[in-house]
Amino acid sequence: MIAGVLLHINIGEAQVDRCPKLEILSMRHRPLDVAYIDVPDPFGTVFTTFSQGDPVRIEYGYRGGSVATWAGTVRSVSRVNRDQVRVSADSEALPLLSTRFTECYADESSVAIARHILQHAGLPIARISLPEEPLARFPVSHCSVWEAAQQLLHSLAGGYGHNMDCVALWLGAEGLNLGNLDEPGPSPEIATSKNLIKHLPVAHQQGQNIVETYLVPGLTHSRRVRLHDTRLKIKKAYRALQVRHEISDKQVRTIIGYGGPRG
Predict the structure, then answer these.
(1) 117 vs 93, 201, 225, CA distance in Å?
(2) pLDDT at 1 (0 to 100)
(3) In the chain, where are the structural domains located?
(4) Secondary structure (3-state) at 20
(5) Where are the alpha helices (H) located in the chain, listed in sequence order?
(6) Mean pLDDT confidence for 139-166
(7) At the topology level of CATH, where does 189-258 sit?
(8) For the chain, what percentages of helix, strand and coil (3-state, to nearest 5) are there?
(9) CATH for 96-179, among 3.40.640.10, 3.55.50.10, 3.30.70.2740, 3.30.70.2690?
(10) What is the pTM of this model?
(11) CA 108 to chain centre
(12) CA dihedral 194, 200, 203, 207 (to 10 degrees)
């Protein structure tokens, strides 16, 4: 492992002493953050050690800076090669997908329906920011919480003409958020001659611009990032739409996507 990297991983009752590669992926407009943990398994015993639903806890940091914690549960275990397995884990937002329900709402406001839908997940609700419109009838038939929320957004767009492209549902530090909102928290600065490794802007408005920097522990989608690229004469704060943390034997990186029609 690279000097200066702090990494502690626990899966179930086991502590992972060595991890050749770790990825933590966070994407706006996706229900779950996910983690991919590579674990050496030269004797074939690790593959059967972990089971679906086992708790996962990851603490990670870099060069004496802040330390972040990621928590979730095992989704699956697959073999990468003869000597290594990959544990895929879902974040604590899993109830957004795993909880299904049937309901028929009548003569309710869109905000009241949204709150009732989110309550089914059993997670704390932080903020709901939606156009408040009356809905005469809104049926939900064996849908996940995530699917029901998306149906509600489509109803507001199709029935009332609201632009819901930038509205997202996610589990943040303070609970569930639904709206065209940012995740609260400090805005890290990524700047030329400081920590900007690579900046790849796209030539069209439909794509995402990519920024590569050194590890920024705890950064997730929907946080604001201050970008200062002297080469491209850019100095502006952007909403992160995608964040990928990578820790391996060769490098530690955070890759950020921003921009596009759903930003």
Answers:
(1) 14, 38, 31
(2) 60
(3) 5-91, 96-179, 189-258
(4) coil
(5) 95-98, 110-119, 145-160
(6) 97
(7) Elongation Factor Tu (Ef-tu); domain 3 (2.40.30)
(8) 15, 50, 35
(9) 3.55.50.10
(10) 0.95
(11) 31
(12) -110
